[in-house]
């Protein structure tokens, strides 16, 4: 029979350390495998969901690309830098004479509205009293502005009869305020 007391103490300490190290490493390996299998299941579920939503993603992609094409095609920077060019193309398309419309200049910098908590960039478009428009032409022009632009909106519309003595004529003058409103970001 062997006497265990005869072994040096350092060999027993190294052996215990090795055994505990292997136990810890085995537990760590089991944990890593369990985590990987859990992630694999989650990935499989997400993949199945993605495959089932593929048609929706394609439809939404087409909508986003369509919006980007509209934004690229409407050239809103032209409306801000040379308003006569951009707006005149819209009113000429509706058969409105250049003498009827008088674009102002953009208000720079944007005005802050404390009550509404937004910034407003705008331009006034006047309808000349001496060359008034039928109401439908004015409405069609406003419609074309909003249709041609992803951001420009009619902020205010003021119309009045051009001839206050003759109510039978469909001749109107006034002012259209066109621009952007964006929220304060702080």
What does this structure look like?
This protein has 2 domains: 7-70; 76-183, Ribosomal protein S6/Translation elongation factor EF1B (Alpha-Beta Plaits, 2-Layer Sandwich), CATH 3.30.70. Strands 1, 2, 3, 4 and 5 form a 5-stranded antiparallel beta sheet that branches. The protein is built from 5 helices and 5 strands, in the order H-H-H-H-E-E-E-H-E-E. It is an alpha+beta fold and 186 residues long. Helices cover 52% and strands 20% of the residues. Strand 2 and strand 3 (118-127) form a beta hairpin. The mean pLDDT is 85.
Q: What order do the helices and strands come in, and which of them pair?
A:
Layout: H1 9-52, H2 54-74, H3 76-81, H4 83-93, E1 101-103, E2 111-113, E3 118-127, H5 135-148, E4 153-161, E5 172-183
Antiparallel strand pairs: 1-3, 2-3, 3-5, 4-5
Helix count from the secondary structure assignment: 5
N-to-C series of helices and strands: HHHHEEEHEE
CATH architecture of the largest domain: 2-Layer Sandwich
Q: Strand content of the residues, in percent?
A: 15-25%
Q: Mind describing the biggest β-sheet? A: 5 strands, antiparallel
Shape: rod-shaped
Number of strands: 5
- Give the domain tally: 2
CATH class of the largest domain, named Alpha Beta
In the CATH hierarchy, what is the superfamily of the largest domain?
Ribosomal protein S6/Translation elongation factor EF1B
Helix content: 40-55%
Weakly predicted, low-confidence segments: none
What is the average of the pLDDT values? 85
Briefly note the CATH topology name of the largest domain. Alpha-Beta Plaits
């Amino acid at each position: 029979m062997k006497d265990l007391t005869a072994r040096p103490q350092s060999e027993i300490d190294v052996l215990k350390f090795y055994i505990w190290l292997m136990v810890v490493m085995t537990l760590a390996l089991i944990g890593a495998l369990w985590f990987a299998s859990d992630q694999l299941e989650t990935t499989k579920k997400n993949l199945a969901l993605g495959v089932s939503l593929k048609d929706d993603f394609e439809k939404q992609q087409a909508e986003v690309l369509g919006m980007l094409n509209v934004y690229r095609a409407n050239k809103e920077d032209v409306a801000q830098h040379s308003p006569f060019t951009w707006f005149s193309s819209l009113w000429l398309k509706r058969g409105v004479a250049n003498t009827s419309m008088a674009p102002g200049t953009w208000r720079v910098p944007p005005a802050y509205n404390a009550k509404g908590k937004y910034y407003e960039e705008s331009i006034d478009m006047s309808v000349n009293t001496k060359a008034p428009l039928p109401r439908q032409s004015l409405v069609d022009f406003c419609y074309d502005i909003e249709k041609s632009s992803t951001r420009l909106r009619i902020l205010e519309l003021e119309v009045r009869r051009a001839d206050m003595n003759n109510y039978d004529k469909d001749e109107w003058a006034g002012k259209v305020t066109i621009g952007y409103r964006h929220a304060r970001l702080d």
